[in-house]
Design goal:
The protein is mainly α. Among the domains are: 40-120, no CATH class; 147-185. The chain is 79% helix and 0% strand. The protein has five helices and no strands. The chain has helices at residues 2-28, 33-39, 43-67, 74-120, 145-184. It is rod-shaped and about 130 Å long. It is found in: Nucleus.
Length: 185
């Protein structure tokens, strides 16, 4: 007897669901699909309507074939997978659009904050950091003072040699000028 009450409850629930399905199907099929598409102006609404139609038809066909105990459901399953992929694409487009709008809103908020801080005169820090004005000096203090004296002596001797070479070069130039003047005469 307990089985009869369970079955009756399932049948009653199935009847309620079928009645609600019938009402929804009547709303969906009150006008032909072409007329419904012409009444819609928004492309997104048209996409939703065609996806809904395809899903309803495929799932009703799937249910009907299940009731008939058809073993090969692969064509219906591929059709349902195709419709699902279209619905996923539409959802991805919506998400991409909402992310773009959110990103633009964040950029506008940041720009407003920067402009407000600049016009307000109460900046949180200087426009140019103090680090940019600090010099970078490197001091080498590895050697001793004796080493420094030797280096200076060596530099002085090199400087003397260079100046002596410059003097010799001047003498040679002046002598060549004298020789060339004698030849001209």
């Amino acid at each position: 007897m307990d089985d009869h009450t369970d079955i009756k409850a399932c049948i009653l629930r199935l009847n309620k669901q079928l009645n609600s399905l019938e009402v929804d199907l009547n709303k969906l099929t009150a006008k032909p699909l072409d007329e419904q598409l012409l009444l819609l102006n928004d492309e997104r609404a048209k996409l939703d309507l065609t996806n809904k139609y395809a899903y309803v038809l495929s799932s009703l066909m799937f249910s009907y074939m299940k009731i008939l105990n058809v073993k090969d459901m692969s064509p219906i399953r591929t059709e349902l997978a195709r419709v699902k992929s279209y619905m996923d694409r539409a959802k991805a487009i919506d998400n991409r659009g909402s992310k773009e709008i959110e990103r633009q809103q964040q950029e506008q908020d940041r720009a407003k904050k920067v402009i407000k801080n600049a016009l307000d005169g109460r900046q949180q820090g200087p426009a140019i950091s103090k680090v940019n004005f600090q010099g970078k000096h490197t001091r080498f203090e590895n050697g001793s003072k004796d080493d420094d004296k030797e280096v200076r002596k060596e530099q002085d001797s090199i400087a003397r040699e260079v100046s002596q070479t410059n003097k010799d070069a001047k003498k040679v130039r002046s002598n060549t000028h004298k020789v060339s003047k004698k030849r001209r005469n």
